[in-house]
TrEMBL record:
GO terms for molecular function: hydrolase activity; metal ion binding; RNA endonuclease activity. PANTHER family: CRISPR-ASSOCIATED ENDORIBONUCLEASE CAS2, CRISPR-ASSOCIATED ENDORIBONUCLEASE CAS2 3. The keyword Kinase does not apply. The keyword DNA-binding does not apply. Signal peptide: none annotated. CRISPR (clustered regularly interspaced short palindromic repeat), is an adaptive immune system that provides protection against mobile genetic elements (viruses, transposable elements and conjugative plasmids). CRISPR clusters contain sequences complementary to antecedent mobile elements and target invading nucleic acids. CRISPR clusters are transcribed and processed into CRISPR RNA (crRNA). Functions as a ssRNA-specific endoribonuclease. Involved in the integration of spacer DNA into the CRISPR cassette. Gene3D superfamilies: 3.30.70.240. NCBIfam families: cas2. This is CRISPR-associated endoribonuclease Cas2. Keywords: Antiviral defense, Endonuclease, Hydrolase, Magnesium, Metal-binding, Nuclease. The gene is cas2. Mg(2+) binds at residue 8. It comes from the Bacteria.
């Protein structure tokens, strides 16, 4: 399933800046960055639950915001892209 992860971490303190880096690193492990605080992740249910658990352990619920969007449309209708960024097609052929 395609999961969109978005977050807004308060960076007014040194601890907040550390939380931001840890959240970003967790997201980078599981997906691709499409905007500064937005990631696309192609995950199965177990991977999604692990990512959710890891991110919830990092954020401060009183100061930060974390959102997950499950994209359920048919694959071809999920994402429309405009502009210069082109995401990786994980189902396409791998060219080395």
């Amino acid at each position: 399933m395609l999961i969109i992860v978005t977050y807004d971490v308060s960076t007014e303190t040194a601890e907040g800046r550390r939380r931001l880096r840890r959240v970003a690193k967790n997201c980078e492990r599981m997906g691709q960055r499409v905007q500064k605080s937005v990631f696309e992740c192609e995950l199965d249910q177990i991977q999604f639950e692990a990512l959710e658990r890891d991110l919830l352990a990092e954020i401060d619920l009183a100061e930060d915001n974390l959102r997950f969007y499950r994209i359920t449309e048919p694959r071809g209708l999920r994402v429309k892209q405009y502009g210069t960024f082109r995401s990786t097609d994980f189902d396409g052929p791998l060219v080395i």
